[in-house]
Design a protein that fits this description.
The complex is a heterodimer of chains A (153) and B (171). Chain A has 153 residues and is an all-alpha fold. Helix content of chain A is 65%, strand content 0%. Classes of the chains: A mainly alpha (153), B alpha/beta (171).
Amino acid sequence: MKHIFLTLCLWFPLAALATVDGYKYPFDDPQDAARFEQLAQDLRCPKCQNQNLADSNAPVAVDLRDKVYELMQEGQSDDEIVGYLVDRYGDFVRYNPPFRAETVLLWFGPALVFVFGLLLLVLIRRGQKQPPKPLSAEEQARLQALKNKAKSS
Amino acid sequence: MNRAFLFIPLLGFIAMGILFWIGLGQEDKTSLPSPLIGKPFPTFILNTVESGESTNHLPQEPVLVNVWATWCPTCKAEHAFLNELAKEGVKIVGINYKDDDFKARQWLQAYGNPYLFNIADPDGKLGLELGVYGAPETFLVDSKGIIRAKHIGDLNAQVWARLQPQFEAMQ
């Protein structure tokens, strides 16, 4: 019984994709169906912000899915479709942001932080590895005195 | 000398903390910048809510274009303020977004009608052209039909204080 239940649980991810894969958007060509799914994955729902069009059931996400389907039926390319939505909703709808002057930090920020951290690590390790300085004359004398004291006691 | 390096992560942390603090404080995550500002109002051929007659243009003067619906609670909240603005002589055109004309007319009768006229957009086609993702949204459109500003969320005295100078400067 338990096993059957667990097996059924495994089917849930399929149900989650039903909105895209299912009855509403028929394609003759399986390649187009895959394109549609990819677009729905890569486009972001403007209302729900942390979901893509494939995941969201917000009314605006449904509208945008319908629009993507409509534009695909008109024979538009992926770039044209994404461009259409970006013209209206802004770069926000893209989960894959374009490379531009204002997005440089977004693309290279993590690498910069990583390089900075690596540099810091190297500097710190290097500092620790320096051999100890030789003792000064004064310190030598003190060391000798301590040794003598240890011997005599 | 080497000990000073140990403070660099702390400084980095403080710098990032300040940046995040500013970012969190300023950014209103529910309002996205609109790419439509400076662009012409999209073309449309739709019926008006009031008479059902077809219309395809805005008045050739500065107007507020307010996207609203009877299913939208925030629209109800801002409606009284729109009535006030209309009384002051601000021209407002409504877009009745994904709604039912009959319900819309009932609403306007019950709460007052601040609009010059209302464009019925039952399936949200014009809304999509305008990048609408949640009513209410308000656009400032000049006499040439160029979108000059967009506000997402309810229009109230505070927001209007910010938008009014721009609206009045518009030709």
